[in-house]
Write a structure and sequence with these properties.
This protein is an alpha/beta fold. Helix content is 44%, strand content 14%.
Length: 371
């Protein structure tokens, strides 16, 4: 009797030099969760090393300049991926959807959001021409994929509209890394010392980039509003550069950690009292679950897939203003029972999102495509 044939799945992460920690954490957590029991006749491999970007091996690789990024992402990397032998390729970030156009084997793409399709292209100038051409190559590659994985039903519906078809779109909600958990009293004290936060300050955490959809100006203005109302609040921001207006509005009450590895990110959650997440658009919203795993109450917009992820375990204010958000946060600052209720509901919510479940649902997609 012939031995069973093992089929190889090549997971295609972002280039580590891109320094997109959330995408790299997704790739690494999924890969590590695709164990022998879940795969059952399938074998997973990575086409690039991503452990350094989340602080697990060596130093974080140097970032790329814009010309280097375009060359590496759109020309060199797809050709390197093509050299891998695999029965199926799983492109782990839709931003690399163009890779699918270079592959001979079937492909699956994880779509984290569709903001690239919502953002209107600009037709003038060589830089914009290059970006528009790149986005068109991503769209072309995505449309050639055999199946898609999304984290929320909201995004499935949005993707179906984009593709003019709901076929072969599968929901596999993302998980929460086990290292994201409530800190001990000692760990919390150490985290606050690390960021230089006063003991009596109520720390509002925001995790996200400077992209307009992250609504960072609202984060700054809401914190300023709370301080004007007499609340001793500090903004701790992870992932963005300090905006020009921040020093005048917050002074020393604004702490900007910039892009960090996972160890630093966990320290930020340990130091915080509340996550504020007023994005205009989110396909999923990793920070919502990460905050809940750290026993933090969450106040956010509920935009996109965020409401689906948060359920009833967060205070959601759709399209809120700085004062509206500030008033809801002020209520939580003054009401420990309300905060504790959110924390309790958040802990229950987090239990529903595990990487093992993500991996199991993802492996099911591989089998459907290969059948």
């Amino acid at each position: 009797m012939a031995p069973p044939v093992t089929r190889t799945i090549a997971l295609v992460p972002d280039l580590p030099e891109e320094q997109w920690p959330s995408m790299d954490r997704y790739a690494l957590r999924l890969f590590d969760s695709l164990d022998e029991q879940i795969m059952d006749g399938l074998n997973a491999k990575l086409t690039a090393d991503i452990r350094s970007i989340v602080g697990q091996s060596g130093e974080t690789p140097a970032g790329l300049s814009e010309p280097q990024r375009y060359y590496q992402r759109y020309y060199h990397y797809p050709r390197e991926v093509k050299k891998h032998s695999a029965d199926l390729f799983h492109v782990l970030d839709h931003s690399y959807g163009h890779v699918c156009s270079h592959l001979r084997s079937p492909s699956v793409v994880t779509v984290h959001d569709l903001f690239f399709a919502i953002e209107k292209p600009v037709a003038f100038g060589p830089r914009r021409w290059l970006k528009n051409a790149a986005l068109k190559s991503v769209e072309k590659g995505l449309r050639s994929a055999d199946a898609f994985i999304v984290g929320t039903r909201y995004l499935k519906d949005e993707l179906a509209t984009f593709l003019d078809s709901s076929e072969n779109i599968f929901i596999a909600p993302f998980g929460v890394e086990a290292n994201f958990k409530p800190p001990s009293a000692e760990a919390r004290e150490e985290a606050r010392r690390h960021f230089g936060i006063a003991d009596d300050s109520f720390v509002i955490l925001h995790v996200g980039s400077n992209a307009p959809r992250k609504n960072l100006s609202c984060v700054v203005n809401t914190t300023a509003f709370l301080r004007q109302q007499g609340h001793a609040c500090t903004l701790l921001q992870v992932g963005a550069k300090k905006p020009p207006e921040a020093p005048a509005k917050l002074g020393s009450a604004g702490i900007w950690a910039g892009q960090t590895d996972e160890t630093e990110l966990r320290a930020a959650y340990h130091a915080a009292d509340l996550l504020f997440f007023p994005s205009h658009y989110e396909g999923f919203g990793f920070p919502v679950l990460e905050a809940m795993a750290n026993n933090l109450p969450v106040v956010g917009s509920g935009a996109g897939g965020m409401q689906e992820v948060a359920g009833d375990a967060a205070v959601l204010v759709p399209e809120g203003t700085a004062s509206e958000y500030g008033e809801r946060i002020a209520t939580l600052i003054d009401d420990s029972a309300a905060r504790n209720s959110l924390v309790e509901r958040g802990a229950g919510r987090v239990a529903e999102f595990t990487w093992r479940r993500t991996a199991s649902l993802t492996a099911d997609v591989y089998r459907k495509v290969l059948s």
